[in-house]
Amino acid sequence: MKKLVWFSIFLLSGLLASLTAEAKVTPFRTDAWEPDSYARWFADSEMVRFPKAYQLDHGKRLFFGYAQGVGCCAMLQMWKKTGERRYFDYVEQWADSLINDKGEIHLYHVETYNLDYINSGKVLFDLYRETGKEKYKTAMDALIKQLKNHPRTLEGAYWHKLIYQHQIWLDGLYMASPFMAQYGAEFNKPEWIDEAVKQFTLCRKHTYDAKTGLYHHAWDESKSQRWANPETGHSPNFWGRSIGWWFMAMVDVLDFIPENHEGRARIVGWIQGLAEVLPKYQDENGLWYQVLDQPTRKGNFPEASVTTQFMNAYAKAVNKGYIDEKYRAVAEKAFNGLKNKLIVECEDGTLTLTRCCQVGGLGGHPYRDGSFEYYIGEKMRDNDAKATGPFIMGCLELGK
Question: Which of 164, 198, 241, 321 qualifies as a FRET site for 176, CA 20 to 30 Å off?
Answer without folding.
Answer: 321
